[in-house]
Amino acid sequence: MNIKKIGFLYNNANEKNFIFDDIDYTYETNTYKLQAFYNLGSWKSLNFDLIVQPQIQVLKHQLINEQFVLPSEENYREKRTEFTTPKTMYLYALELGFVLRKELFKNLDFVTTIGLGLATIDTRTERLAKGFTFIENGSLGLSYKTSAKTYLYIGSNIGHVSNFDTQKPNNGYSFLGYEIGISYKLK
Question: What integer is the mean pLDDT of 114-130?
Answer without folding.
Answer: 96
